[in-house]
Amino acid sequence: MQPPADLLHNPIEYGVYDIPIHLAASLEPQRASLRSTLLAAQRRLTQFALKHHWQAHVQEPFARLFHVYSDKASFDHDLLELCGLDPALELPQTYCAALEQGVLMSVSPELYRALYPQGDEESAFEKLLTHEMAHRLHIRILGGDEEAMGAVWFYEGFALYAAGQFEKTAPHLTAAETWDCVNAEERGDYRRYATVFQHFSRKASIQQLIEMAGKGEFVDWLREISG
């Protein structure tokens, strides 16, 4: 499905676009509310971008299509296929949204709440969509260099921060727990990522953090600014 070109370039308002929506048949009654949520997610990210002087990076939509699924199996299959991976691969139950090749994909708000109850907070689904678009904002800031996004805790932490996720519910971490999170090689709890990113955002500007995140001396630099 290719939307008309003018939909991709003429915003409803600055940084907010009327992205076409494809729904599972059972979700059709939710079309209006899902459209409103998608618009709100774009506004949320645009406000974040403007706050940090990244307005140049929201002058094109982050997605050309929004596809919402009523079941996890269909979401997993289509996402893996879109990414050129084996559709038989098993994705984590909590993996509920993605933005690949211009397609923003997610399970329904109800299914997201059931699969990831830890993420249930005010405007949770809106923030989920903002999170996925924030990854693309991050890449645009870096001029398309995905390798410079840094470690998992950092680029997920950035998206969490941009979306305003877990602002009130992120756990308290000791200094040792913070550094354990920074040094971990495997994916961890996103709520901890939110805490760690918030911590370092008080030590340096977001722009500085993004600039340093892809460099080999990033962790040493974090230790320096942490005192």
Summarize the structure.
The protein has helices spanning 5-9, 31-51, 72-82, 109-115, 124-141, 152-163, 175-183, 190-201, 206-213, 218-226; strands at residues 21-23, 65-69, 97-100, 103-107. It is of the alpha/beta class and 227 residues long.
Which short descriptors sum up this protein?
227 residues; disordered N terminus; 7% strand; globular; 4-stranded mixed β-sheet
Question: What would you note in describing this structure?
Answer:
- By secondary structure, the chain is an alpha/beta fold.
- It has two domains: 1-141, no CATH class; 144-227, no CATH class.
- The protein is built from ten helices and four strands.
- The protein has helices at 5-9, 31-51, 72-82, 109-115, 124-141, 152-163, 175-183, 190-201, 206-213, 218-226; strands at 21-23, 65-69, 97-100, 103-107.
- Strands 1-2-4-3 form a four-stranded mixed sheet, with helices on both faces.
- A hairpin with a 2-residue loop joins strand 3 and strand 4.
- The longest helix has 21 residues, at 31-51.
- The chain is globular, with a radius of gyration of 18 Å.
- The N and C termini lie far apart (53 Å).
Coarse morphology? globular
Low-confidence stretches: 1-5
Range of helix content: 40-55%
Number of domain units: 2
The radius of gyration over CA amounts to 18 Å
Give the rounded overall mean pLDDT: 95
- Count of alpha and pi helical runs: 10
Largest sheet entry: 4 strands, mixed
Distance between the termini: 53 Å
N to C succession of SSEs: HEHEHEEHHHHHHH
Care to count the β-strands? Answer: 4
